[in-house]
């Protein structure tokens, strides 16, 4: 641990100095940070030699996901999305369940040693997407707005949707393995969801109301207005956990509540810059740690079955459900392929892995499950990172020649 923080700080400094040079290239930030983690991790240089079950690793991952969940949820404006809701609604309402089902089936077939609850748990762990791994796809202005917004909203919301699913399936898997009783599993899940929602609503409402009141009375400094969303995210998480609730559900619900009240009061998106930047910073550190303490050791347990499952997870398991979710919306093949390919796995999956590691040995095939998840993330960081900029450019050129019509990616009868 002695040299872990200096090594991470050095990586951040070097990348910051070169960040403009790599912007828009196939070399993305997650690729750089993950590669740096591999280089400085315990399997190589040994500078970041931290155990995956260490409290610092768990705390880093949980803080990062809480900030990102709050930020993503606070940014959702359902009224503004009303005219463009068809695509994200289909990706989340049809594509996400089908992706979990396909991932479950693939795990049962390819990773035959997994019990069915473990196979389902792996599918849920790998279901959420992370737009940060292919940033060009959601930021390139020449891409059709409907496509960019659809992928961005999907990525922002599916983390929060998958958190309660993860908690439920994990409890089922632990009960099936005899680690906890069935009644205890039901009570645990009920408390985590119930207290998580309550803490999130309370924290988000209090923070938004205080910010609105302070603005009306002109008693808050603009700098401290930036602190409010960060403090709200921390408040939601830290209130939920001691009560037995899920801090992640609290952060997500808190963000939805905070954003809705702020917009109703005419607050818009101001004050969120520090929250976004804090999330980006913690995400960068998380990917360094991921490379050092998770991916490095997992590469030593790589097998053809695990590699095959990772390949299926990033292709068939994602792309076929997306294609099925778009049936009836007049999709064209390049658009379907583009939407299907860009479902990268990242931060949420890393945190789910660390949560399982928090209480090791409760699942009979835990090592295989976690290795498959970690290898899939590593493959996604590389594949989606390298392909994001060039494929986004190519799709942008194609879309200019074949612009989306008013009825493309929209249900019949929708605006």
Automatic annotation (TrEMBL):
InterPro entries: Cation/H_exchanger_TM. Residues 13-392 form the Cation/H+ exchanger transmembrane domain. GO terms for cellular component: plasma membrane. It is a multi-pass membrane protein. The chain crosses the membrane at residues 91-112, 163-186, 193-214, 234-261, 281-300, 306-324, 336-357, 369-392. The keyword Flavoprotein does not apply. The keyword Transmembrane helix applies. Its main location: membrane. GO terms for molecular function: antiporter activity. Pfam families: Na_H_Exchanger. It comes from the Bacteria. Keywords: Antiport, Ion transport, Membrane, Transmembrane, Transmembrane helix, Transport. One of its GO terms (biological process) is proton transmembrane transport. It is found in: Cell membrane. This is NhaP-type Na+/H+ or K+/H+ antiporter.
């Amino acid at each position: 641990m002695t040299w872990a923080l200096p090594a991470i700080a050095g990586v951040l400094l070097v990348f910051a100095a070169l960040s403009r040079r790599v912007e828009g290239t196939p070399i993305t930030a997650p690729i750089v940070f993950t590669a740096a983690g591999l280089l400085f991790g315990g399997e190589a240089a040994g500078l970041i030699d931290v155990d995956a079950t260490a409290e610092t690793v768990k705390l880093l991952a949980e803080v990062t996901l809480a900030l990102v969940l709050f930020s993503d949820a606070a940014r959702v404006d359902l009224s503004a999305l009303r005219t463009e809701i068809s695509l994200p609604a289909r990706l989340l309402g049809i594509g996400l369940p089908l992706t979990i089902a396909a991932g479950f089936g693939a795990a049962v077939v390819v990773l035959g040693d997994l019990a069915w609850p473990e196979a389902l748990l792996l599918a849920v762990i790998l279901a959420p997407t992370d737009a940060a791994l292919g940033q060009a796809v959601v930021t390139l202005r020449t891409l059709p707005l409907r496509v960019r917004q659809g992928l961005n909203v999907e990525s922002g919301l599916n983390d929060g949707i998958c958190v309660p699913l993860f908690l439920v399936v994990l409890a089922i898997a632990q009960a099936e393995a005899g680690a906890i009783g069935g009644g205890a599993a039901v009570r645990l899940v009920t408390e985590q969801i119930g207290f998580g929602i309550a803490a999130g609503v309370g924290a988000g409402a209090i923070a938004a109301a205080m910010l609105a009141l302070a603005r009306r009375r002109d008693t808050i400094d603009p700098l401290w207005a930036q602190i409010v969303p960060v403090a709200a995210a921390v408040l939601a998480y830290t209130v939920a956990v001691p009560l037995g609730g899920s801090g992640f559900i609290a952060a997500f619900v808190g963000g939805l509540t905070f954003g809705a009240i702020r917009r109703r009061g005419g607050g818009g998106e101001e004050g969120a810059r520090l929250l976004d930047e804090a999330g980006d910073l913690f995400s960068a550190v998380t990917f360094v740690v991921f490379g050092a303490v998770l991916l490095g050791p997992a590469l030593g347990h790589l097998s053809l079955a695990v590699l095959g499952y990772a390949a299926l997870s990033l292709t068939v398991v994602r792309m076929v459900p997306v294609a099925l979710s778009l049936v009836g919306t007049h999709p064209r093949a390049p658009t379907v392929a583009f939407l299907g390919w860009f479902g990268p796995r990242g931060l949420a999956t890393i945190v789910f892995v660390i949560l399982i590691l928090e209480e090791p040995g409760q699942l009979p095939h835990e090592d295989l499950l976690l290795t498959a998840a970690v290898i899939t993330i590593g493959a996604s960081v590389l594949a989606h990172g390298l392909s994001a900029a060039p494929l986004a450019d190519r799709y942008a050129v194609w879309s200019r020649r074949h612009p989306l019509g008013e009825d493309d990616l929209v249900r019949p009868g929708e605006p």
